[in-house]
Design a protein that fits this description.
The chain is α/β, with parallel strands linked by helices. About 45% of the residues lie in helices and about 15% in strands. The termini are far apart.
C-alpha cells in the first residue's frame, strides 16, 4: 500500500471511530443529571420556640459549611417515642434523631441503631465528653449515641424568703433542708419546700442508703429496706412536718411554677428552670446550691439526650457529618451558648464559663456524682408503677412499704410479660 492509500485508510478508520462515538452519545439516557446534594432527615421533639429557632440556626450554619448536605428538620410534637418506634419497624425512620437516655437501653438492644465507633476519629476528641453522659449511650461496648446536652438537679431557693427567716446560707444536708422548710413555711411562702414525687426526682434518694432502682436483669428493686430509707424522708416531711407541697396542692403545673409563684421557698429543679424563672417571674430573686447531702452522700439526677443514627439510613457518611458537627466543639458551643442547655463537652463548658456561673455551677459540678436517669429496657413499667404508688403513700392512702412492694411487683410482672 502506497502512502496515499495508507493516508486514506487511516482517515476512514478515524471517521468510523467518530461515528461510533457519536452514536453512543446519542444512545445515552436523556434523564437529567442527579443533584450532588444529599438530603438528611433529622427528627426531634418540640421544645420551646427559642430552642427550635436556635437549632434551625445551627443547622443553617452546618449546611453553609457542608454545601452538599441538606438537612430536613422535623418536629414530632406528640407521642415522640411511639412515632419513632413505629417508623423504625416500618423502615421509615429519620436518618438522625433525638434519643433520651431513659429510652436508650431498649432501642440499643434492638439492632435498629447504627454503632458510631467506626466513624469516631481521634480528631473528634471523644474523651472531651463527660463520662457519665457518654456511658448512658453505650451498649455491649459500643457507642450508639453522642449526648447533645444535659441537666442535673440543684436546689433553688428564694433569697427574700431566706432573709425574712434569718437564714443566710442554703442547707447543706437533708436534715437542714427539713429544718429550713419548717422555718420558711407560712412566712413569705405558704410552704418551705416543693416536692416532685416522681421516680425521676427520687432515684438519688433511693441510692443514698445503698438502694437500687433495678437489678442486673432489669427488674425493679426499689422496694428494698435501703431504698425505703431514702423515700421515708420525703413522706415524713410531707405528712409529719407539713412543710412541703406537691404542685397539685398549690394549683401549679411544675416545680418551677410553684417556686416562681412563691408558693414554696425552695425547690429542686434543673437548668431549664433558670431561663423560665428569669423570663416568666423576673421579680423573684433566687439563687442555686448543690442538692443537700443525704446520709453524708452527695446526690442528684442527670438527664441527657443524644443524637443517634438510624441503622437503615441511606446516607450514613452524611448522617455522621451532621452528628459530628452538632456534637462537635463548634456546633455544641453554638447550641449551648445561650445557657438554656448545658454542654456535654468539658472544653465547651469551660469556654462558656458555666463552671464559674453563680446559677449554673452547682448544676455543672453535679454531673460527676449524679445518678443517670435510666431504669433498664422497660422504663414505662417501672416509672408508671412507682409514680402511681408513691403518690398514694405520700397522701397516706397506704404505707410506704406496702405501696413500694405493690409497685415493684406489678412492674416486674409487666416486664416479664414483655420479654
Amino acid at each position: 500500500m502506497n502512502n496515499k492509500g495508507l493516508f486514506n485508510f487511516l482517515a476512514l478508520v478515524i471517521a468510523i471511530a467518530i461515528a461510533i462515538i457519536a452514536c453512543q452519545s446519542l444512545q445515552l439516557p436523556s434523564k437529567p443529571l442527579a443533584s450532588t446534594a444529599v438530603s438528611i432527615k433529622l427528627s426531634g421533639w418540640g421544645g420551646s420556640p427559642i430552642e427550635q429557632k436556635l437549632l434551625r440556626q445551627v443547622l443553617q450554619d452546618f449546611e453553609a459549611q457542608h454545601p452538599t448536605i441538606k438537612v430536613k428538620y422535623e418536629v414530632i410534637s406528640d407521642q415522640y417515642m411511639d412515632v419513632i418506634k413505629t417508623r423504625l419497624v416500618g423502615e421509615a425512620a429519620p436518618d438522625v434523631f433525638y434519643l433520651d437516655a431513659l429510652e436508650a437501653p431498649f432501642l440499643m438492644s434492638q439492632n435498629v441503631l447504627e454503632p458510631l465507633d467506626s466513624y469516631i476519629t481521634p480528631k473528634f476528641d471523644l474523651v472531651d465528653f463527660e463520662d457519665t453522659l457518654l456511658n448512658s449511650f453505650k451498649y455491649q461496648n459500643q457507642i450508639y449515641g453522642l449526648p447533645k446536652d444535659y441537666s442535673t438537679l440543684a436546689l433553688f431557693y428564694n433569697k427574700k424568703a431566706f432573709a425574712a427567716a434569718g437564714l443566710s446560707n442554703p442547707p447543706a444536708t437533708w436534715d437542714e433542708l427539713r429544718n429550713y422548710s419548717q422555718q420558711l413555711t407560712g412566712k413569705l411562702n405558704k410552704y418551705g419546700f416543693g416536692e416532685i414525687p416522681e421516680l425521676a426526682r427520687q432515684a438519688y434518694k433511693i441510692k443514698a442508703f445503698g438502694g437500687q432502682l433495678v437489678d442486673g436483669n432489669g427488674y425493679a428493686t426499689f422496694a428494698s429496706a435501703a431504698g425505703l430509707q431514702g423515700l421515708e424522708l420525703v413522706v415524713n416531711q410531707y405528712q409529719k412536718d407539713r412543710s412541703s407541697a406537691q404542685k397539685s396542692d398549690v394549683g401549679t403545673n411544675s416545680g418551677s411554677e410553684m417556686f416562681g409563684q412563691s408558693k414554696v421557698a425552695m425547690v429542686i429543679e434543673g437548668n431549664w428552670a433558670i431561663p423560665y424563672l428569669t423570663e416568666t417571674f423576673p421579680q423573684v430573686e433566687f439563687a442555686t446550691a448543690p442538692v443537700p447531702t443525704i446520709n453524708e452522700r452527695k446526690g442528684t439526677m442527670v438527664f441527657t439526650v443524644a443524637y443517634v443514627m438510624n441503622k437503615q439510613a441511606q446516607h450514613k457518611a452524611e448522617a455522621w457529618e451532621l452528628i459530628s458537627y452538632l456534637t462537635g466543639k463548634e456546633g455544641m458551643q453554638k447550641w449551648t451558648g445561650t445557657g438554656f442547655a448545658l454542654p456535654t463537652r468539658k472544653s465547651v463548658a469551660k469556654n462558656l464559663g458555666y463552671d464559674q456561673d453563680p446559677l449554673r455551677s452547682p448544676l455543672v459540678a453535679g454531673v460527676n456524682y449524679a445518678t443517670p436517669w435510666q431504669v433498664g429496657q422497660y422504663p414505662g413499667a417501672i416509672v408508671n408503677n412507682f409514680d402511681n404508688q408513691f403518690v398514694s403513700a405520700l397522701l397516706g392512702q397506704q404505707s410506704l412499704k406496702q405501696a413500694m412492694l405493690k409497685a415493684e411487683n406489678e412492674a416486674n410482672q409487666q416486664i416479664k410479660a414483655m420479654e
